Amino acid sequence: MKEQLTALKHEALAAIAGAEDLQSLEALRVRFLGKKGELTAILKQMGGLSAEERPVIGQMANALSEKLTGAIAARREALEAVALDAQLVREKLDITIPGTREAVGKQHVMRKTLDEALDIFIGLGFSIAEGPEVELAVNVFDKLNTPDAHPSRDWSDTFYFDRDSEYVLRTQTSPVQVRVMENQKPPIRVVSPGRVYRKDEVDATHSPMFHQIEGLVVDKGITMADLKGTLNALVEQLYGVGTATRFRPHHFPFTEPSCEVDCQCFKCRGKGCPMCKGEGWIELLGAGMVHPNVLRNCGIDPEVYTGFAFGIGLDRMTMMRYNISDLRLIFENDLRFLRQF
Ligand code: PHE
Prior knowledge:
Elements (H helix, E strand, L loop, with lengths): L1 H17 L3 H12 L4 H6 L9 H38 L18 H15 L3 E2 L5 E3 H4 L26 E3 L5 H9 L4 E10 L11 E11 L4 H16 L5 E8 L2 E10 L16 E10 L1 H6 L8 E8 H8 L5 H6 L2 H4 L3
Parallel strand pairs: 1-4
Antiparallel strand pairs: 2-3, 4-5, 5-9, 6-7, 7-8, 8-9
Helix pairs in contact: 1-2, 1-4, 2-4, 5-8, 5-10
Phenylalanine binds next to strand 8 and strand 9.
């Protein structure tokens, strides 16, 4: 049996040293040291040994078992190290290669002005209402008390969609007033921002597409003082406490009385400067008390309710706020320009 053990030792050690991967190493462990392995098979024959021989062979077998276990562990470590090296090479990350820069966008300057204005109105208790850009001519003109012969209805001023003049690209955000009043009972307090369209040639102050913020408040006992207070709150938050507003008489078909509202020039505080062209005032919006006919057209009793409405030109407001001299810059989307804001 001694010879058997010695032969096993040489064979096993050679095989273990030659194992090329972890699987074949595990197979060798099972083959030599497993329950049905070769060492166990030899030990099973120990019953036939004499009392003197048995402890000697027993010791030899234990020593061999330990030796093989150690050899397998050492080989495993070596093979694992090789595998790890290979993995490191395979998954190597070269941190010296320049990374790809993520382009982080930012808000368009118009959006910024709009968000500032909407924040102020939301703070005053307004909610936001939206309406379609392709709108019924009835909502844009008729229900807003616009006479049949009014120039704004002209095909040379307005983009019509069909021969019957049923649909137009809205020329103002005021038709949202109609949609809100037809769907909601007073008290009403909404602002409605959006694009509007008119047949204008493009120049430094005109564009066939521009932006407005419509405002509408309808309730019992609403007066022009509420309009003044609301607009003062707006300009004071935009341009600083104490910034005054001035109402000039004007005409709109859908308000009576109507006015244009100027805000004290925030550059010179009313003294007169290039910003306000020496006027001391800058035109901000059109406004007025909602015409009783408009209330009636939308199912609201003008004997019970009154309201005010206004329409802010958002593009002009953006130009003033950020000192932009040409409206076209806002729409051309040249990143060199937009990145400034
Ligand atoms: N819709 C008007 C315009 O486009 C502005 C306005 C709105 C005036 C609401 C009065 C009331 O000029």
